[in-house]
Amino acid sequence: MDTTFTIGFIGGGLNSAVGITHKIASQMDGHFKLVTGCFSRHNDINIQTAEYFNIDKKRLYFNWKELLEHEKDKIDAIVILTPTPSHYEILEETIKNQYAIICEKALVSSVDEGKKVKQLIHKYKNFLTVTFNYTGYPMIRELKNMINKGLLGDINQIHIEMPQETFIKVDKNGNPIYPQPWRQKDYDIPTVSLDLGVHLHSLIYFLTQKKPLEVVAIQNSFGHFRQVVDNVISIIKYSDNMLCNMWYSKSACGHRNGLRLRIFGTYGSAEWYQMKPEKLIVCDNKGNIQIVDRVSNLVEVTCLPRYNRFKAGHPAGFIEAFANLYEDIADTLQHYQQHKDTPVNYTFDIDIALEGLNLLNTINLSAKEKTFIKLEEVI
Hints:
By secondary structure, the protein is an alpha/beta fold.
């Protein structure tokens, strides 16, 4: 596609975890151009970010509501990059002002807020997509293709984990490394679930399209910040008799970001590890084991030009995966502008985000009640 969409950031300052990543990923393939923003509530950081991003001073705002007021009909979409607990207020105003919206995960911090967002989207007919970026890895998409073609047979179980060490790690003097203030507090859904659990739900949905039905879970606090949950283990029953063993943590020493999934079917299995993103280990029920990369003879997806910005042997990583998702968002946004609907292919709409929030909320309830709990239907 030749279209370049203009976007504005709310949040995403130089001191944020995601601002620079979104800037690079959105513009890597030329589909988006950042032209305006309110990047931080701190004036100095806001100005520094605008200078770093080469934003015209006339289009830098110190209040996000002023941005919405003055940029209406001048840009194609708003990208919401503030901390998750602040999302609902911004989403509400952005939807009412009829902007197309690209929102950082987990969309909002509770099921109730998610339901309200869905009602607003249905009322105002906005474009809304949520950036579950790990689905942009080419080998994840190759695995999705294998599953869709039935090469692994009927999927019966998934083991998926995302361990990190940030809440138990210390600096060179032995002192705790404090996260952002909003991450030192839990909300209706624990922050670790909003941070990490949403990614695991989105990957399972992306690969299988199966729905979570029932959960049993344990939650702990093992790190320095005992006021928040930092370790979650759950067993999830999905539709079509699929089972999932899910673990995510911020108190797992030695793991920077140990995202790994193993998926098992009646004909075979596959394993993918984010620290080695270009390799997929595939096994069949005859005992054969293969290592597949993006130029193996077996692949049908990762050999496409869009996943080969440079030749194999030069690994594409996190930013490139994010850029792959932004290319899908551009395709979906173009379709929306032309047809006023949003087909879900490689992108994620309000229903998928709300399903994830519902799952994470049920995990929290199960851990508190120490029993299996069925997911309530979210309308």
